[in-house]
Amino acid sequence: MEANAGLVAGSHRRNELVRIRHDSDSGSKPVDVSGQICKICGGVVGLTADGDVFVACNECAYPVCRPCYEYERKEGDQSCPKCKTRHEPIRLLTNGQPVSGEIPFPCATSDYNQSVRTNSGPLGPNGDKHLDPRLPVPVRIVDPSKDLNSYGLGNVDWKERVEGWKLKQDKNMIQVTSRYADGKGDMEGTGSNGEELQMADDDARQPLSRVVPISSSHMTPYRIVIILRLIILVNRETYLDRLALRFDREGEPSQLAPIDVFVSTVDPLKEPPLVTANTVLSILAVDYPVDKVSCYVSDDGSAMLTFESLSETAEFARKWVPFCKKHNIEPRAPEFYFAQKIDYLKDKIQPSFVKERRAMKREYEEYKVRINALVAKAQKMPEEGWTMQDGTPWPGNNSRDHPGMIQVFLGHNGGLDTDGNELPRLVYVSREKRPGFQHHKKAGAMNALIRVSAVLTNGAYLLNVDCDHYFNNSKALKEAMCFMMDPAYGKKTCYVQFPQRFDGIDNHDRYANRNIVFFDINLKGLDGIQGPVYVGTGCCFNRKALYGALLMSQKSLEKRFGQSPVFIAATFMEQGGIPPSTNLATLLKEAIHVISCGYEDKTEWGKEIGWIYGSVTEDILTGFKMHARGWISIYCMPPRPAFKGSAPINLSDRLNQVLRWALGSIEILLSRHCPIWYGYNGKLRLLERLAYINTIVYPLTSIPLLFYCCLPALCLLTGKFIIPELSNLASMWFILLFVSIFTTGILELRWSGVSIEDWWRNEQFWVIGGTSAHLFAVFQGLLKVLAGIDTNFTVTSKASDDDGDFAELYVFKWTTLLIPPTTVLIFNMVGIVAGVSHAINSGYQSWGPLFGKLFFAIWVIAHLYPFLKGLLGRQNRTPTIVIVWSILLASIFSLLWVRIDPFTSDAAKAASQCGVNC
Ligand SMILES: O=c1ccn([C@@H]2O[C@H](COP(=O)(O)OP(=O)(O)O[C@H]3O[C@H](CO)[C@@H](O)[C@H](O)[C@H]3O)[C@@H](O)[C@H]2O)c(=O)[nH]1
Ligand SMILES: [Mn+2]
Ligand SMILES: [Zn+2]
Ligand SMILES: [Zn+2]
């Protein structure tokens, strides 16, 4: 620094323009402003490199921290949030020294000093501030447009500098894109490393994410319309650059926390190995230090196919991962990456990349051929069961009776990638299964993985995905760490949930598979209370939150966690990780022990800790348990969706999925963990509880819904009306109710950004699910409680082939779930026909009331329309719905024809009319 003194001063020169000295060495009482809170993000305003309080606005000294100030200046509305003075654009000086956050607008007003005084201590005799002897030049506030001497700063040197600065500013208009350019400029120009570090230190105190409020013009009317939904709605924004600056600096060992990623799979026929493989590849290629990521694949089907394809995948990852990282591609699941179209003209693509991409694509095709060969081979099990490549029988031949199996691929001692770099560890786990032992479906599998991973790698955080949910955004782990490693959020956050997004859904999303309303309205809204519910996939957990409270004696530790000293020791590792010297073979032995089927006996697994048992929607239950302990959760929606999965797109599969969810809710409703009566210790927020109650009682609404759907038809058939007589007052109330529901809906759509079509699909599917799956769930749930009949977890099939014409949408499978909605549909159609024919027969005056009744019947049919389409299938692409409507209309017209039959005499007509009506 000394050697370059001149340049150091040069860099200080910039600082002087903004520095407001926080004078602790003055005689009178200093005001401590070091802890000043930023009015934008709520973080500490912090100091400049020289230890002064950072001031963003010279006009009003409104407290804003540097990151917020820079954000506002670069991407925000470029003015002071309080006095609206415009911030100067970001420019570079001629000598390459960037002018960034440290120079706000070079202006000052006379009342400025006053506002400064309150902030930063007393001023000197001339109204000038006390000077800090440690500084090379005194501190002052300068308006270059005014005579400098009028500020009592008769310093020629100063004046020159300002003039010079002005000149340079006019000449140079190079935009600085990031604040790191600033730091580097300093390093090259002045070598002032100390200053740079200090700036980095400042950043270390900044939050890693911020809440982005929704504009009040969108929110206020919404809140007014519906008091119950008075929720503090929020958006969030993460700062990956700050995360990197704090924990992952270039050239230093990364300080990011280790994370274990879990993938669950059970049935390789419904969940094709290629789908799982793509998920695994996207995890192995994730943008995170390789030694801090481990991928665990749980195979609940103990399928050799899954094992062998994972082995192939590990091999392919050695080529795939370096390719992804070198070219920084997205997404890093090859199937989806290669399905993307590249615009070679537009996307400034280098020829070398084009070549490598093509070569990689070929490699992937070859890999796919190998996987498909494995799948073909696995179609029919030989009589003696499967045999592994080394000739020994596959231990998992009986998926209900087999030992625990673990295989470690890649990682520290495994193969390197083709560039010679290490790869994340990949572990195959199939927990032990024996007859007579409850295995608790997915929740059981997840708990086994918690223990295996604690023994082998012990990541401080866990992230779990379904086998079909690949990382669509390679920075997803870092996004999660922006909350988990945040000084403010980290300690109280149990998980960060990402929204579920889907591929391969038909354009109109006929069966509301995207669940947009749930993800973009419900979960987003909950983020403003105590956090979103856990939805089972795409969720990053704080490992500690899964362990419950930790302060207890050794004996009770064993009672809680089971008899594994290695596992118990691991629970004490605050930052995760395992002692470096431990021998893998010993650990593997312990890992086999913790996945044995009797391990959880008389422990708290599934009752108090880990994934909670007792419901096929283990996710809701698990999240609820954490919220009831007072943890908060976070909803993170990065602009590029973090995860993407597949959804069942044919009607029957979709209904079965909804049935499972509804059944899971009923199971919770009738269990000890029911949010209506569980957890009154004051830690679960009231509105959060309300939301949980809503997520578990909804299947019950199917009963009134069914009645409501039948009423219009009933009215039409009997000639009676729902409302006895439409008095003016009654219709007023009715219209008011309708309008208020409608307004809430519209306002909700405004803040959530959900489209009308998505909303309408959701409404339709609510009725379809309500009259089928929800109804069945209520009865099955009661059966479970009363007769002890266990529920099973029917996995949805994940399509692997990309035919693209949505053939899957039209697949028709018979299920009893189809009966009630079909009945309701036919009932209403018959009602319409009967009603119209009745009106035809009863003359002019009966048409008025008829329209009222018809409206309700058509309203029901409109809701069930996608269901009807699903029932009718594709049938050679003829819009079959037209046929149905033609039949309907045909019958109406034929009745009409009968009525005005020109051949019947007037007398006969009168007689028949009388006959109908009397
Ligand atoms: O005994 C079992 C049953 C299922 N699974 C896994 O559970 C996941 C979810 O199954 P899926 O058929 O895809 O169900 P979805 O309805 O699509 O899943 C949603 O709903 C489930 C709760 O019903 C959650 O567990 C899921 O995470 C969530 O994505 C899959 O990875 C399965 O392999 C197991 O590991 N073991
Ligand atoms: Mn799924
Ligand atoms: Zn201001
Ligand atoms: Zn701030």
UniProtKB/TrEMBL annotation:
<feature type="active site">
    <location>
        <position position="619"/>
    </location>
</feature>
<keyword id="KW-0464">Manganese</keyword>
<feature type="transmembrane region" description="Helical">
    <location>
        <begin position="846"/>
        <end position="868"/>
    </location>
</feature>
<feature type="transmembrane region" description="Helical">
    <location>
        <begin position="696"/>
        <end position="717"/>
    </location>
</feature>
<dbReference type="Pfam" id="PF14569">
    <property type="entry name" value="zf-UDP"/>
</dbReference>
<feature type="transmembrane region" description="Helical">
    <location>
        <begin position="729"/>
        <end position="752"/>
    </location>
</feature>
<keyword id="KW-1003">Cell membrane</keyword>
<feature type="binding site">
    <location>
        <position position="442"/>
    </location>
    <ligand>
        <name>Mn(2+)</name>
    </ligand>
</feature>
<keyword id="KW-0812">Transmembrane</keyword>
<dbReference type="GO" id="GO:0008270">
    <property type="term" value="F:zinc ion binding"/>
</dbReference>
<feature type="binding site">
    <location>
        <position position="300"/>
    </location>
    <ligand>
        <name>UDP-alpha-D-glucose</name>
    </ligand>
</feature>
<protein>
    <recommendedName>
        <fullName>Cellulose synthase</fullName>
        <ecNumber>2.4.1.12</ecNumber>
    </recommendedName>
</protein>
<keyword id="KW-0808">Transferase</keyword>
<dbReference type="InterPro" id="IPR005150">
    <property type="entry name" value="Cellulose_synth"/>
</dbReference>
<feature type="binding site">
    <location>
        <position position="264"/>
    </location>
    <ligand>
        <name>UDP-alpha-D-glucose</name>
    </ligand>
</feature>
<dbReference type="GO" id="GO:0071555">
    <property type="term" value="P:cell wall organization"/>
</dbReference>
<feature type="binding site">
    <location>
        <position position="271"/>
    </location>
    <ligand>
        <name>UDP-alpha-D-glucose</name>
    </ligand>
</feature>
<feature type="binding site">
    <location>
        <position position="270"/>
    </location>
    <ligand>
        <name>UDP-alpha-D-glucose</name>
    </ligand>
</feature>
<dbReference type="InterPro" id="IPR013083">
    <property type="entry name" value="Znf_RING/FYVE/PHD"/>
</dbReference>
<keyword id="KW-0135">Cellulose biosynthesis</keyword>
<keyword id="KW-0472">Membrane</keyword>
<feature type="transmembrane region" description="Helical">
    <location>
        <begin position="817"/>
        <end position="840"/>
    </location>
</feature>
<keyword id="KW-0961">Cell wall biogenesis/degradation</keyword>
<comment type="similarity">
    <text>Belongs to the glycosyltransferase 2 family. Plant cellulose synthase subfamily.</text>
</comment>
<dbReference type="GO" id="GO:0030244">
    <property type="term" value="P:cellulose biosynthetic process"/>
</dbReference>
<dbReference type="GO" id="GO:0005886">
    <property type="term" value="C:plasma membrane"/>
</dbReference>
<keyword id="KW-0862">Zinc</keyword>
<feature type="binding site">
    <location>
        <position position="466"/>
    </location>
    <ligand>
        <name>Mn(2+)</name>
    </ligand>
</feature>
<dbReference type="GO" id="GO:0016760">
    <property type="term" value="F:cellulose synthase (UDP-forming) activity"/>
</dbReference>
<keyword id="KW-0479">Metal-binding</keyword>
<keyword id="KW-0328">Glycosyltransferase</keyword>
<dbReference type="InterPro" id="IPR029044">
    <property type="entry name" value="Nucleotide-diphossugar_trans"/>
</dbReference>
<dbReference type="InterPro" id="IPR027934">
    <property type="entry name" value="CES_Znf_RING"/>
</dbReference>
<keyword id="KW-1133">Transmembrane helix</keyword>
<feature type="transmembrane region" description="Helical">
    <location>
        <begin position="880"/>
        <end position="900"/>
    </location>
</feature>
<feature type="active site">
    <location>
        <position position="300"/>
    </location>
</feature>
<feature type="domain" description="Cellulose synthase RING-type zinc finger">
    <location>
        <begin position="32"/>
        <end position="88"/>
    </location>
</feature>
<dbReference type="Pfam" id="PF03552">
    <property type="entry name" value="Cellulose_synt"/>
</dbReference>
<keyword id="KW-0863">Zinc-finger</keyword>
<feature type="transmembrane region" description="Helical">
    <location>
        <begin position="764"/>
        <end position="783"/>
    </location>
</feature>
<feature type="binding site">
    <location>
        <position position="441"/>
    </location>
    <ligand>
        <name>UDP-alpha-D-glucose</name>
    </ligand>
</feature>
<comment type="pathway">
    <text>Glycan metabolism; plant cellulose biosynthesis.</text>
</comment>
